[in-house]
Amino acid sequence: MATAKPARTFEDLLVWHKAHRFVLEVYAFTASFPKHETYGLSLQMRRDAVSIPANIAEGFRRRSKPDKARFMNIAEGSVEECRYFLILVKDLYGGTPQRSLQRWKKSVEYPTRMSPPF
Within a 13 Å sphere around the CA of 75, how many CA atoms are in the beta-carbon half? Predict the structure, then answer.
């Protein structure tokens, strides 16, 4: 049985790639928000989405397991905040195109079960 080579940078982590794709999806999704949400919900969703891969990257370089785990936990918290925003968007703007909502929901699901890279 072949074993995987250890990751040398955060970019070697599958979870980081998925989180990065998620950020791109959030940016695309929030671009269609009403103008008055530019500095409100749209900005907050983007900040929380960016926090996910950023914390994975920062945690990757931490030396101790507890430190690495702390950053992965912060990333997971940001995933949950983004999940809440999906609920809020649906309740506030029920007219959001269903296709975009489904694509965004799918994007939200994949980074939730992150295991630390150690």
Answer: 31
12-109 domain in CATH 3.40.50.970?
no
Question: What's the pLDDT score for residue 115?
Answer: 45
Provide the 10 A C-beta neighbour count for residue 113.
Answer: 9
Sequence-distant (6+) residues with CB within 8 A of 52 are 19, 22, 23, 75, 78, 79, 82, 111
Q: From CA 51, how far away is CA 84, in angstroms rounded?
A: 15
**Which residues, 6 or more positions from 46, have their beta carbon under 8 angstroms from its beta carbon?**
23, 26, 27, 30
- Map tokens 């080579």 to a residue: 5
Could you state, in order of their start, the residue ranges of all structural domains in the chain?
A: 12-109
pTM exceeds cut of 0.70: yes
Least confident of 4-13, 40-49, 100-109: 100-109
